[in-house]
Amino acid sequence: MRLIRFFSGYDFLLLFLVFFLIVWSVINIYSATINEYKTLYIKQAIYGFVGIVIIFLFPLINYRKFLNFSPFIYLSGVLMLVSVIFAGTTILGAKRWISLGFFTVQPSEFMKFVLIVTVAYILGQRKDGIDNRQLLIVTGVVSVPFLLTLKQPDLGTAITLLIPVLTMLFVGGLSKKIIYGSIIIGIILSPFIWEHLADYQKKRILAFINPEADPFKSAYHILQSKIAVGSGGLTGKGFLNGTQSKLFFLPEQHTDFIFATIGEEWGFVISFLILLVYLLIGLRILYWGIKVRDIEGKYICFGAGSLILTQAFINIAMTVGFAPVVGITLPFLSYGGSSMITFSLIVGLVLSVIRVYKTEKLSFS
């Protein structure tokens, strides 16, 4: 009876969907890297196992008590980002990682979890909407990691840091005047923003608009990814039989473009299933955001759900040519320990919200 009650606090649909993606990740990273990196899938399996442990154990912590440590968690995250400037490892021209010997850590990825926790804590101090003081604090809290991530340079991750925060502000009842005013200011400042983008970022945007203009350089990633996805047809070329990936035409096939590898080998049917899984995960988390009573729990669920949905959409849209290449991972599927652990922490935090809600509901029923 105790065992049944213990597990009754978990959302098994959400667990199943996330575990499916983790297992699917190891299988497809094996296929994507077997001709180049013989043991990379083993590392991903280890990251996945750690992620599963986090997802199972984190809900045992009451998220309300955990949020009380958010100032220290935020400070630790910012210090990690600052350490990248002085002791970071440069890969492909970007300094985003800290080497810890056998593996590297990307602090900007962890900031997604940190900001959800921190902003939920700040906004949760008031139960009747957001005031100007909170908005000012949140703006300052978000600006520091946003600018530090932008400096690396990593525009894609910097943008994803804003997604859960903007969603939580919207859910908290941010004034429409501020929302519309921010949009107008963004439009007015767009020429200034364009001038301050790095050259490679400008080329990626131009390649998205007209990929045929530079097919062998700035548009190479998009074109090869579209070829891979399109060549998969309805049912794909078969496991380990992808030509674009196996002959190394498709860049970053195990990280940013893992969806293209899946599309080539498994086809439209499985690709659509993957899309459906992400949609179900996001909607399931948003459902709990509507259902739970606690305001901090609501903020967590809406921030987490919006991040997973939006990041998955941007990554998949990027691989099929519907969005510029921005260099962000596909949650739970792309290779990388930092991404896997970050999204496992986020899902674990959501499950803690669900568990507390179910426990309290049983107590008062």
UniProtKB/TrEMBL annotation:
GO MF annotation list: lipid-linked peptidoglycan transporter activity; peptidoglycan glycosyltransferase activity
TM stretches of this protein: 12-34, 40-60, 72-94, 100-123, 135-150, 156-171, 178-194, 266-287, 299-326, 332-357
Domain of life: Bacteria
Localization: Cell membrane; Membrane
EC id: 2.4.99.28
Functional pathway: Cell wall biogenesis; peptidoglycan biosynthesis
Name of this chain's protein: Peptidoglycan glycosyltransferase RodA
Native source species: Persephonella hydrogeniphila
Gene this protein is translated from: rodA
